[in-house]
């Protein structure tokens, strides 16, 4: 079993490597923010000379009704989250379902078992929950009565743009990188914040370990003892994946890899079983890989 090898126990070289890689992502993120152009407001021609007194009054009323800054309108979206729970002594399927406030039949369906099935100590069970998140977006501008038709079209376009922005924001936080499973096998160690850094997928010695997504190999070697033979792949400015305890590495630092490409052979180096420890790091911090992986395993 995994022996509670926490991030806090990592040695100095381990911390320096991850901090270096995390810093690289942060620098890129800050650079992207600095390059956002600010578009100045376009001046409107003055038509007051040709306007009649009635038109002047209507224009004045329209300006008075418009606010200089639109209030933020909260928009909610529902995202699905997957977590894992380990069966402990005395646990039952019914008890676990009750403690997590889910139906037994749902818990059984998520794990491909029957509602009356017995669970064993150490078994990992999947829990699926839905979370509602709220994103603040700019409310669409309201137009005056004289241009009601144009204003309605503008409002509709603004609302559609807001929806696209919200969807993009949800996607960024819920599934910012599309991954595939790095190996075929059973998840024998789930992710536990503060205790484990990722998930362990068991298999046979020599089984292929593949890149979970396109990216660049930032590290490939054996210099970090607790990881054994380790590969770290950077996918974008926010996300890295790591693959450890391999028997043989098939890529080098600096290589560009494609999703599904074999990068290593599964092994048991510095581990008590044949498995690949798969980590996902966002902004340098370990996160649960399961929400980023397809279900069922493919």
Give an account of the 3D structure.
The protein is built from five helices and twelve strands. It has two domains: 73-174, LysM domain (Membrane-bound Lytic Murein Transglycosylase D, Chain A, Roll), CATH 3.10.350; 178-292, Glucose Permease (Domain IIA) (Distorted Sandwich). Helices cover 26% and strands 28% of the residues. It starts with 11 loop residues before the first helix and ends in an 11-residue tail after the last strand. By secondary structure, the protein is α+β, with helices and mostly antiparallel strands. Residues 1-10, 24-55, 64-69, 143-148 and 169-175 have low confidence and may be disordered. The longest helix is centred in the middle third of the chain and has 27 residues, at 148-174.
Main traits of this protein?
ten-stranded antiparallel beta sheet, disordered N terminus, about 300 residues, two-stranded antiparallel sheet, globular, Glucose Permease (Domain IIA), Membrane-bound Lytic Murein Transglycosylase D, Chain A, metalloendopeptidase activity, 2 domains, alpha+beta, 5 helices
């Amino acid at each position: 079993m995994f022996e509670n090898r926490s991030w806090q126990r990592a040695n100095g070289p381990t911390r320096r490597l991850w901090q270096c890689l995390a810093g690289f992502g942060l620098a890129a993120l800050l650079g992207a923010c600095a390059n956002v152009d600010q578009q100045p407001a376009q001046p409107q021609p003055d038509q007051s000379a040709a306007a009649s007194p009635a038109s002047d009054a209507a224009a004045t009323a329209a300006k008075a009704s418009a606010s200089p800054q639109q209030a933020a309108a909260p928009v909610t979206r529902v995202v699905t989250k997957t977590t894992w729970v380990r069966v402990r002594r005395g646990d039952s399927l019914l008890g676990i379902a009750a403690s997590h406030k889910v139906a037994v039949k749902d818990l059984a369906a998520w794990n491909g078992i029957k509602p009356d099935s017995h669970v064993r100590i150490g078994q990992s069970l999947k829990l699926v929950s839905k979370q509602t998140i709220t994103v603040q977006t700019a409310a669409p501008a309201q137009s005056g009565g004289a241009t009601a038709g144009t204003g309605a079209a503008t409002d509709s376009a603004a609302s559609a743009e807001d929806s696209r922005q919200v969807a993009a924001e949800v996607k960024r936080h819920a599934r910012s990188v599309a991954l595939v499973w790095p190996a075929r096998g059973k998840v024998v160690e789930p992710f536990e914040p503060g205790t484990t850094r990722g998930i362990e997928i068991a298999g046979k010695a020599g089984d292929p370990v593949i890149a979970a997504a396109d990216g660049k190999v930032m590290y490939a070697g054996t210099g970090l003892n607790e990881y054994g033979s380790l590969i770290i792949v950077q996918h974008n400015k926010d996300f890295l994946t790591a693959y450890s305890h391999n028997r043989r590495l098939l890529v080098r630092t600096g290589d560009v890899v494609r999703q599904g490409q074999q990068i290593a052979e599964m092994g048991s180096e510095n581990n008590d079983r044949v498995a690949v420890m798969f980590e996902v790091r966002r902004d340098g911090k370990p996160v649960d890989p399961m929400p980023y992986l397809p279900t069922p395993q493919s």
